[in-house]
Write the structure tokens for this entry.
Amino acid sequence: MRRAWVIAKKEIREIRRSKYLLSSLLMPIIIFGIAMPGAFAIISQLPLEGQVNIPDFMVEIIPGYEQMSDQQRMLYFSVYFLLGPMLLLTPLMVPVFIASDSFAGEKERKTIEPLLASPASNMELFLGKVLTAFIPSMTISLITFVIATCLFNWSALQVFGYIIFPDIAYFTMMTAAAPLATIFSISIVVLISAKVASVRDASQIGGVVIIPLILLIIGQMFAVIFINTATVIIATAVLALIDTFLIRFCASRFGRENILTKL
């Protein structure tokens, strides 16, 4: 798979030269990694006794709720049910921009024929494009996660006296389940990009594809779905199996000959 890495390195160098793409990639760090956690860090330091109204259905979910002060309840609720789930949106949303451009962008720029004429196999071409979206996306996601975690735990040290984030479930999710879910979404969007004529079409269809995954995360925000270690491990195993078959399926359906006939 050496050629896949060569393709990915070349594409990533081009992304680094694009001010538009770089600014788009930095936005999650600024919004989800710095601005929102920073705002809640400031709010958590305010005197909130008697002013916090946690939804009734959350009382049984939050561990040690009765022993917490209002400040502690507010911080725990914000971290695990508002800001934490938003961090999981980053590895799903960021790669759509890059993956949509993978083949559709090459068609628009009239550079697709040299790529298809390369000695790389269909699998190598497909994996190269998947890696092109995966590597920057996970880099941005991990940077966002680390910065947000530092801000969360700075607040926790002031309010609880100890760090509260991430627990085992969230750590496993960000380091295992989220990357696998990202590969899932990227693979589908890259295949779509090979089938459609423009980046705009690929982005619109790709956005629809990741909606079910986003709905699962929103479900955590409203406690419709509660994230715990067991569900994360099961989800990780299922995603690993799906990704293995999906990549093979997408590469087999990729077909450079079909792309050439649609130019």
Notes: Residues 2-261 form one domain. The radius of gyration is 21 Å. The chain is about 75% helix and 0% strand. The chain has one domain: 2-261.
